[in-house]
Amino acid sequence: MVRSLFAALLLNSLPTVALADSIEDLDRLDNRIEVLTGVSPGHPGGAITPLDRRLKLAACPQPATIEWAGSDALAVRCPAVGWRLRVGIAPVAASQGKAMLSVHRGDTVEVSVVGDTFDVTATGIALDDGAEGSSIRLKIGATGTQTSAIVTGPGMVSLSR
Predict the structure, then answer these.
(1) What does the pLDDT average to over 20-36?
(2) Whole-model pTM above 0.70?
(3) Maximum pairwise Cα distance, the chain
(4) According to the model, what pLDDT value does residue 17 have?
(5) Domains along the chain?
């Protein structure tokens, strides 16, 4: 009797985690990748394919980080859990070559952020070439903070979504 009571108390004290909460939502990650690249998977400038649905990643307690890893891939990471993915980016068609680029690597670009009640502009340095509508990496400020932005025109990028 004492053993079964002890076993019941022990089992009840163990943390239980719902299976749905323990696996990362790949649809949400795909959506975030699409927002960052500005293009649907399978299209030039977007992820080559959606994330493989056979992946069973442990749920990240905070939003996973998604950063450019060169001009042809994204690094998706969950530092708290320890998993990381590399997502290939489909190359932009040859017809969108250098002649059609609005921003070139090393250019000083005007960076804009627009909200409901504000409009802020600053300058940054382009780390990638980009045609209008594509996502590029850039450095902002004296500290060289890196971020991604969407090319909106010649020498102009936007952080607004």
Answers:
(1) 88
(2) no
(3) 82
(4) 42
(5) 18-88 (no CATH), 94-158 (2.30.30.760)
